[in-house]
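This part of the workshop introduces the protein records we will be handling. Getting from the letters to the C-alpha cells is the skill we practise here. An example says more than a description, so a record of this kind follows:
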Amino acid sequence: MSARYPTIRALLCTVLMLLSGASGFQSASARFRSPSSLTQSIESAWVVESVATNTKIDLPPVLQGIVDERQEYHVKLGRAMDTLRKDMQTILTDKPDFSIYHKDITLLDPSGVQLHGINQYKSAFAFFKTFVNFWFSPSIQFRMVYDQCRSSIRVSWHAVLIPKILLGRPLHVDGISYYQLDSESGLIVEHKIENLVINNTPIQPPYGIFSLLQQDAFQMQPVGAGAMITNQ
C-alpha cells in the first residue's frame, strides 16, 4: 500500500485517541492529557503502524496540521517561560521584555483593577518600578511552573521590600501571577495576580498593592490602586 494512503487500522487508532484521550480503558487522571502528550500519541500510533507494515507512512494533512500547530505552540510557550524566568530575576528594578505579550493583553489584580492593551500594561510596569525603587530596596524569589489545569504559566513569588526611610518597616509580599497564552499567536494575552498578601494581610477590594504598600510601610492613608495606575 502506498505511503500516502495509510491503513484503516492506523486511521481508527488515531481517531479513537482524538475522541477519548488515547484509550477508554485508562484511569480518570490519565484521560486528561496535555496537548503535547496527545500529539506524541498521534505520532507514536503512526510510527508503530509504519514499523508493522515496513513502510513509511505520512500523517494525513488534518492530523499533520494538528501536530504542527501544537509543536509551534509549545515552542512559543517555551520562549515565554524562558523570557519570564529571566525577567522575574530583575522584575522590580528593570524593564521586562514586552515582546512576549499580546497587544490586547489584560492585567487583573485582586483590587478589581483591569488594564487593557500593551500601552497601559507598560505604563503600569513603569509606574510600579519607579514607585518601588523610590521608596524601597527590593529583592525577589520565585518559582515557575506550567499549570496544565489552567493552561497557563504560574509564577509564585515572594518579594522583600526594605524601606529607604528610617521609620519604615520591611515588607514581605507574596502572590501568584498567572500568564495566559493566546492559542493562535502564542503571546501572553492575560496576566492575572491572585493570592496577594502583604505582611500577612490579604489584599481586598477596593484597595490594591500600591495602597497597602503605603499603608503598611509608612502608615499612610490607603488610596485606590486603580486611580494610581490609570492616571499615569
Remarks:
- The longest strand covers residues 136-147.
- Strands lie at 101-108, 114-116, 136-147, 152-163, 171-181, 188-198, 201-202.
